[in-house]
């Protein structure tokens, strides 16, 4: 009697790296279904090792954007989305990717959409800020959400000065109580004057937890015409679910330019000191403050009449030190030399694979992608609004829990 040999699954001979390469080419729905094939595939897709690789190759990646003539913030109802790999439909607008709730309908009805603004994006998560129009003294509420999975988290209120600490400083008695109340009222009113800059940091390949930074700024009383400098940072951790306040640990005045990036546990802030190319950094605990950190790309638009695009990489030299290395420099954006980098171009973002720079061309009213390897450009999206005040938020869908 012959015994039939059980055939081994051919997929068992494939290495994990090869399987990941195959999975990375799948659209979002088949990728999610692939988690049900077997336990090993589920671990590959859901695990932190390959999470960034699978997310970055998703065809639904693109930019949220809005355009305001005065450059002010805009509610989420004014947001639009353009994809990197999806051809635009009639009118020049890219279709919304499947599973992406662009209307933010998953937020509670109490959040009036016209009073919710998008502040930042980081690796699939968005940072929102909500203002209660019915209460002018109410503090703004921060919300972190994933529009692809429709999950959201409302952050607790920012900490006020502790009454016990103020009491110890000014002494006891009825006068102390009145002083404490006055100080707390001043702090609450001060927080409502101007919205503070805020940033979201999140790396799903390292941890499922995120951090939110809020920068406290002050203007110099001697030179009020200069940009305000950072005096303190409030940091929220989703792991501890608490805010902490850290006074600035930089040994010089850092004036935040509005651009930032997150890498290797540090929030990197571009400063207004463009002449010296200063990039300041602080870790997620507010314990380490440094001018630079390793393996970060930085693009400089240059100044003067002959403008050029320069891309630097901050490389680790060992012992915590780093040095900037020039990776690419050009004045021409195409091989023919007919498209020159000029004042009409504004830096928007650098592709995660670090070989494509996204620029906004105010003359052509277009978002363009410049390939540093090939020296070529392509138009990603052409806008219909005649204003240069476009705000862009890079978005990479995160479907993995």
Automatic annotation (TrEMBL):
Pfam family, any one: F-box
SUPFAM superfamilies: F-box domain, YVTN repeat-like/Quinoprotein amine dehydrogenase
Superkingdom assignment: Eukaryota
The F-box domain, residue ranges: 14-54
InterPro entries membership: At3g26010-like, F-box-like_dom_sf, F-box_dom, Quino_amine_DH_bsu
Name of the protein: F-box domain-containing protein
